[in-house]
TrEMBL record, chains A, B, C, D, E:
Protein name: Carbon dioxide concentrating mechanism/carboxysome shell protein
One of the Pfam families matching this protein, by short name: EutN_CcmL
SUPFAM superfamilies listed in its UniProt record: EutN/CcmL-like
CDD domains the record matches: EutN_CcmL
Keywords for this protein: Bacterial microcompartment, Carboxysome
Primary location class: other
Top-rank lineage group of the source organism: Bacteria
GO terms for cellular component: carboxysome
Keyword Cytoplasm appears in the UniProt entry: no
Compartments where found: Carboxysome
PROSITE patterns linked: BMV
Amino acid sequence: MIAAKVIDNIWATRKADSLVGLKFMLVEILGGLDAGRLIIAADTISAGIGDRVLVSLGSSARKMMDREDVPIDAAIVGIIDEDCTF
Amino acid sequence: MIAAKVIDNIWATRKADSLVGLKFMLVEILGGLDAGRLIIAADTISAGIGDRVLVSLGSSARKMMDREDVPIDAAIVGIIDEDCTF
Amino acid sequence: MIAAKVIDNIWATRKADSLVGLKFMLVEILGGLDAGRLIIAADTISAGIGDRVLVSLGSSARKMMDREDVPIDAAIVGIIDEDCTF
Amino acid sequence: MIAAKVIDNIWATRKADSLVGLKFMLVEILGGLDAGRLIIAADTISAGIGDRVLVSLGSSARKMMDREDVPIDAAIVGIIDEDCTF
Amino acid sequence: MIAAKVIDNIWATRKADSLVGLKFMLVEILGGLDAGRLIIAADTISAGIGDRVLVSLGSSARKMMDREDVPIDAAIVGIIDEDCTF
């Protein structure tokens, strides 16, 4: 997983049918060489803008969905505790 | 997913049989450290040149196809709304 | 796999149900061009802070779990021997 | 997919049994931030040195094979038309 | 695949049960933008230090194993012929 900060919502009215109803958020990777890299992740755990989150990439992101056929490659899987410094 | 801008069509007359009939587009990643990275993505949702799109990478791209055996690793899965600023 | 050093624990109280009970650790890639890249990996083999570990990425990380539906994309799979210099 | 130019043949007499008979080619990524990155791809569509090709990476590359157990992570899936400028 | 040079053995006495008996080698990517990147790959074809090898990454690496549940994401799949220049 990577640690990232939620920056904004992303809206895409025209999209794959299997993505309808999903919430997408722009996140920015925190720390290390990848800091500043931007990813758009599906969010099913109600993350908010400003939250630091754990993002899972690739086929593992699909494990956050109820079905196997959703074409996402990034998903927020956890929200890092506020008092967790790193 | 990554946010990207559609730059051009890509034509490949000689290709794998399972790719015949698919539309391929050159997209350029927008924003962050990856800005300027180029990807060729399959498009099944009628994106146009200049559109900002969501692109899914890896095995998830194949979920945009009706069959599991299509050798693509990138697909346009959504078109970002024009009034969505980020 | 990549070689990495365990830097810290990562705490995320709010997370996917399938992640409850898993231990997450921040690791930093050692050596080469990727040195300094940060990853958050699941740990099931009791690695400690300061250990040099082998981290497996992508779908292979899920093979460390008892179930296939855990949305992790990085896992510690081994602890490099202390007298192994490289 | 990425666009790449075929640079050379790669010969490996000692290799996994499942790779015997496969043709491997060194390709160099064209354009964008990744220009100059080198990949070795399996070729089943008779690409030649100097051709510009589409290369599929990861599990999708295996979809070019008749069997699922071939350990390749890159395959040439198309040859870009000569009059296609981008 | 990527072309890499075998640098050293990696020893990890404490590791996942499914990794016991596997040989791990540190390899360094050769050529192009990725030159100098380090990977630890499983070796089942008796590569030696100094050999130039083909390394397969991701889920494809698992195809070198007899079982599907081995948590490796990199495997040596071939040894580049000594007289192959590139």
